[in-house]
Specification:
The protein is about 25% helix and about 30% strand. The chain is of the alpha+beta class. The chain folds into six domains: about 260 residues, no CATH class; about 80 residues, Carboxypeptidase-like, regulatory domain (Immunoglobulin-like), CATH 2.60.40.1120; about 90 residues, Immunoglobulin-like (Sandwich); about 80 residues, Carboxypeptidase-like, regulatory domain (Immunoglobulin-like, Sandwich), CATH 2.60.40.1120; about 80 residues, Immunoglobulin-like; about 100 residues, Sandwich (Immunoglobulin-like), CATH 2.60.40.1120. Helix 2 runs antiparallel to helix 3, helix 2 packs across helix 12 and helix 5 crosses helix 13.
Length: about 750
């Protein structure tokens, strides 16, 4: 392959010959660009790598269609932003409970005084708002490093026209950023764009994964799911770039230069699928009956939306009898149903595809009550009412397979007086998570509102321009010298939304705004060539002072290990992930085992670590303790524990017709189990079966049924292989001494 081959030539080779050499050349040209954009969007190193792979997976599969794109670099920036935003929205839905907890200690992006830090989070959004040609000239001039004359040749115009076009595009970008509250001159923008848009670059390991796994069809399932999610229905994923118009909706149709054609299915997607459970007895479909809660009359025309693993499906409509029937899919992890009816409170019904199976219920009644009004006011710190603020209302229901009222991200806006009102709130609720977004303020400010103040409409949300304290510090090497380019993250849990992030300057100094709350917070720093460093603020913002916080990065220590099955055979492709370090989950690290089942971390901290290990068709290992620098560790993964049994009435010896079964996990260091009450399985006909993968440290089952006392099993070990456990249920109020 000629090194001077154009992007279009390489795409043609990939499409026609599935040329791995051409794909390696093309992805090598743009890997740094895509990875840097993914990092800006995700603020998570592992997620950024997966987004990068997902974007190049789309390039590999859509190479024939992309030949019409004038400038691939501009298309890649837009595609990366869309893939990342789809994934972040997906994760936000799956982490509703975590967001609810995070509300108590809000964490926001850095409000660093450094212009580059302020621009960073908004840059991709600003680029996406540019026209196609303007975005292309930014990419060509400042990312690919082309001269004005080269840009002129590329765009087919004179050098003088190209120079003016570059200046005009830069001015438009600056103007967009100013409207978002960030001021930066053209000189600053032009000087920082190359470093910002190409940093951090793709690591050698990531390049190897892109170059080898994508053509071979061995991409991790999470990456495939991410790419598929970007192509889901009702999402405009790939946008118009250059002279060719490419709009991909739902992965089904593609329009090229006004032409509409059917897009063939992606071959790789058919090779990788989510693990599915065996077919189970019982109803293959579920019928929902929407009823008025007072009159029990059917609510014909009720709207029903189904969400499968975070992917919202097209809504359906109940018939005149208020009934709506759907087929229960296999292989899902979570399935949520939301029913809506004008003038009624939205209702939620959720299902978890737990390890336990049996005869599933096939019909559910969903009583829907009339809504009642709630409201409040949004002001700034001076008490000035804020018009046109977006108010998002959310409640969380822990109930599984039980209909319950919910506010599923209901959106209203404030009027000219700063007031808002929502007319369909449940009659009974404890509190609501209120998210306020308004132009000119840090995004996503959360508030906890009680039922009383919402019903009285006295709830007041005060938006702040600066959230919390500003933490200033310095990252040092073992000799006490400043470390340039270290990534500093403020969070006690790596899954916390909107983690404040900063990058150290030439002297190793950094600044992070938005430190608030009195909960523990870990300030973690990482940099190439060093082990991670961390300082824990036991009282959160209460420990932030004017003094510089010093984070010292020690020399790295190597962690080596091997994952094998019970027969000692290597387990290839197992995911090994850091669970906890120093008692918290702030630090991120993960890898996959090689062809001999081995894994290695070259820059581990010299402390005891807890690792999680997972691999499809094997039980998980949770929080295994290892010590870097010691002898290589061997971690044994067991096959799933096969379990089955019957649930009977202790007196009549008849099957209990309807019961709930919950499992509890004993975590490392705990004496007893933690019951997973958020994921009960409601079954019938007095029997159950399943394959459990969570009992690496032991676990229990608990069976509950209306009118019966709960029954708890003995401690079960993952290594038991296959067991049968029967449960005898005793009715409440019966003389138990006689049994």
């Amino acid at each position: 392959m000629e090194a001077s081959a154009s992007d279009r030539d390489l795409l043609r080779e990939i499409a026609a010959k599935r040329s791995e050499e051409a794909f390696r050349e093309l992805s090598g040209r743009y890997a740094d660009l895509v990875h840097a954009a993914a990092t800006r969007q995700a603020r998570d190193s592992h997620l950024a790598e997966e987004i990068t792979q997902a974007v190049f997976l789309l390039v590999w599969e859509l190479a024939g269609k992309l030949q019409s794109v004038t400038h691939l670099g501009g298309w890649l920036i837009a595609a990366t932003r869309n893939v990342a935003q789809n994934q972040l929205r997906h994760e936000q839905r799956l982490k509703r409970r975590e967001r609810r907890v995070a509300m108590m200690t809000p964490e926001t992006r850095s409000d660093s005084a450094q212009p580059a830090s302020a621009i960073l989070p908004l840059l991709d959004d600003a680029l996406s708002r540019l026209g196609n040609v303007d975005r292309d000239v930014i990419v060509e001039r400042f990312i690919r490093g082309r001269t004005h004359s080269q840009v002129a040749v590329e765009l087919g115009m004179s050098e003088q026209a190209a120079s003016k076009r570059v200046a005009r595009a830069l001015e438009k970008l600056r103007s967009i950023l100013e409207r978002r509250g960030v001021t930066a001159g053209d000189l600053l923008l032009s000087s920082m764009l190359p470093a910002t848009l190409l940093s951090p670059g793709a690591s050698p390991a990531l390049l190897i994964a892109i170059h080898s796994a994508i053509p071979a069809g061995t991409v991790a399932p999470s990456v495939v799911a991410m790419a598929k999610r970007a192509l889901r229905p009702r999402r405009w994923v790939l946008i118009a770039v250059g002279a060719a118009m490419i709009i991909l909706i739902g992965g089904a149709f593609i329009a090229l230069r006004g032409e509409t054609r059917k897009l063939p299915g992606l071959a790789m997607f058919s090779r990788t699928s989510a693990p599915s459970f065996p077919s189970i007895a019982g109803a293959p479909s579920v019928t929902l009956s929407m009823l008025d809660s007072l009159t029990a009359q059917p609510l014909g025309g009720a709207q029903v939306a189904i969400d499968i693993d975070g992917n919202r499906q097209l809504p359906g409509t109940a018939g005149a009898d208020g009934k709506y029937t759907f087929v229960r899919p296999t292989g899902f992890q979570s399935l949520g149903v939301i029913a809506r009816m004008p003038g009624k409170v939205p209702m939620s019904l959720s299902f978890q595809n737990t390890a336990l199976r049996g005869d599933l219920l096939s019909a559910y009644s969903i009583p829907m009550e009339a809504g009642s009004p709630i409201g409040g006011i949004v002001t700034d710190e001076r008490g000035q009412a804020l018009a046109d603020a977006q108010v998002t209302l959310s409640t969380f229901s822990a109930a599984t397979e039980t209909p319950s009222p919910i506010l599923p991200d209901e959106i209203v806006r404030t009027g000219a007086d700063g007031r808002w009102r929502f007319d369909h709130a449940p009659s009974r609720f404890d509190e609501v998570l209120v998210q306020i977004d308004r132009l000119g303020f840090p995004a996503g400010q959360y508030f906890q509102a009680t039922a009383a103040e919402l019903r009285d409409q006295t709830f007041r949300a005060v938006l702040k321009h600066q959230l919390g304290a500003t933490l200033r510090g310095v990252v040092l090497d073992p000799q006490g010298r400043g470390v340039k380019g270290a990534i500093v993250v403020a969070a006690y849990n790596r899954n916390a939304p909107n983690k404040p992030v900063a990058r150290s300057d030439e002297a190793g100094r950094f600044s992070i705004g938005g430190i608030s709350g009195n909960a523990k917070m870990a300030i973690t720093a990482t940099a190439p060539g060093f082990a991670p460093g961390q300082v824990v603020l036991a009282n959160g913002a209460g420990e932030v002072t004017d003094a510089l916080l010093k984070i010292q990065l020690p020399l790295p220590v190597m962690l080596q290990g091997r994952v094998v099955d019970v027969g000692g055979k290597p387990v290839i492709g197992a995911r090994v992930e850091l669970a906890k370090w120093r008692g918290n989950g702030a630090l991120e690290w993960s890898t996959e085992t090689d062809g001999d089942g081995r894994f290695q971390w070259n820059a581990a901290p010299a402390d005891v670590l807890q690792l999680n290990v997972s691999k499809e068709s094997f039980a998980r290992i949770d929080r295994a303790e290892v010590t870097p620098g010691a002898a290589p560790v061997t971690l044994i993964v067991y096959p799933p524990l096969r379990i089955s049994g019957h649930v009977i009435d202790a007196a009549t010896r008849q099957p209990v017709p309807e019961f709930r079964i919950v499992y509890g996990i004993r975590w490392t260091g705990d004496d007893d189990v933690t019951w997973q009450t958020q994921s009960p399985r409601k079954l019938g006909q007095g029997k159950y079966e399943g394959e459990i993968v969570d009992f690496s440290n032991g676990g229990k089952l608990r069976v509950e049924a209306d009118g019966y006392l709960p029954v708890e099993s003995r401690l079960i070990q993952q290594s038991e292989g296959a067991i049968s456990l029967d449960f005898e249920m005793k009715r409440v109020g019966r003389d138990l001494s006689r049994h």
